[in-house]
From TrEMBL:
UniProt-recorded Gene Ontology molecular function terms: CoA-ligase activity
Name of this chain's protein: AMP-dependent synthetase/ligase domain-containing protein
Every AMP-dependent synthetase/ligase domain range: 17-322
InterPro entries: AMP-dep_synth/lig_dom
């Protein structure tokens, strides 16, 4: 399964209420408009010579624009290399070199702050973006349907089934430099199928908030809920008061955060001033969580905390501790 299939096959293609919403850049696209944007950008990639199974990287903050780039990469049959903007420039260069990436979507601010880009890449290997545009094209243009008769052959040379490389994900790097874990079609299909099984559609319209880096678990988890027809809210970083307000305003149902970010929410003076009744899955992972903090989170956000364990090297939901599991463990005193 390609990443763009989670978009193209979503029931939200016929549901005008579900959208990709960029809270930082005031951008909102329907699923069909996202498809249109990905086709325009995929055509640009093809003109630049990107072929099936080439590696193309994204190096940009969380944004709807970044999602457009990811879907375009997938639509030409290339493999996506996500680069975390919070990692050092040098460590990301190592990942680019290891992957032999042929092209890079890069945020204009990152490129300006790192003049070494010009030493590593030709102008034709870079496509610049910010929250409002990609390759100089505003969303007002990108979101329009391609011209009548436009033919985009997006799968003609893509390996079939399990053989297709979909993404390269950086490992933790605890024993040296990060390695690159290869995720193929089967890995993505398995991961998202497990996620959909253990976290089925809620009883209200699904809305997933991405505030932790899109390049890691928070972004990876968004594809399964796309296939369920959810709205995707995007913000770059975790500002506690803003995030708490967004949950209430947009009736967020799904949220992924590491424990350290949850601690910041719990410590905020207005944490009890908002309505979190829409939350169905407050997903935490990536590190152990204090039992006392977990009890506090359940008291404030409700019995909606869920925990998973996995690694980039072992895609990726290896264990699942449901909201009900949490409640039962606390009642029995097992926590």
């Amino acid at each position: 399964m390609r990443l763009v299939d989670f978009l193209d096959c979503s029931p939200a293609m016929t549901n005008s209420d579900a959208r990709f919403i960029d809270l930082d850049n005031d951008v909102s696209l329907s699923y069909q408009e996202m498809v249109n944007a990905s086709i325009h950008l995929a055509n640009l990639l093809r003109k630049k010579g990107v072929k099936s199974q080439d590696v193309v990287a994204t190096y940009a903050p969380n944004s709807v624009a970044a999602y457009c780039c990811i879907f375009a990469i997938s639509r030409v049959g290339a493999a996506w290399l996500p680069l975390n903007t919070r990692s050092t420039f040098e460590s990301n260069l190592k990942l680019i070199d290891k992957s032999e990436a042929v092209l890079l979507f890069v945020d204009e601010g990152i490129a300006a702050a790192n003049p070494k880009f010009s030493d590593r890449f030709s102008d034709d290997q870079l496509i610049f973006l910010d929250g409002q545009q990609i390759a100089g094209l505003a969303f007002s243009s990108l979101s329009k349907a391609p011209a009548v008769g436009f033919d985009f052959d997006d799968q003609s040379h893509t390996p079939e089934g399990d053989q297709a490389l979909v993404s390269l994900l950086a490992t933790g790097g605890t024993t040296g430099d990060s390695k690159l874990a290869e995720w193929g079609s089967l890995a993505w299909q398995t991961f998202t199928s497990i996620q959909a099984e253990v976290m089925p559609l809620p009883d209200i319209p699904a809305c997933y908030l991405v505030s932790a880096p899109i390049t890691h678990a928070a972004g990876i988890a968004s594809f399964a809920v796309m296939l369920q027809g959810a709205s995707i809210l995007v913000m770059d970083g975790m500002v506690p008061e803003t995030l708490l307000s967004v949950i209430e305003t947009y009736k967020v149902t799904h949220l992924f955060l590491p424990p350290t970010a949850i601690y910041m929410l719990l410590a905020h003076e207005k944490v009890k001033a908002h309505d979190y009744s829409s939350l169905r899955y407050f997903w935490y992972a990536a590190a152990p969580m204090s039992v006392d903090k977990l009890k506090e989170a359940i008291a404030i956000f409700g019995p909606v905390m869920v925990q998973t364990y996995g690694q980039a090297e072992a895609p990726m939901i290896c264990t699942f501790f449901s909201a009900q599991d949490h409640v039962e463990a606390l009642e029995k005193g097992d926590a």
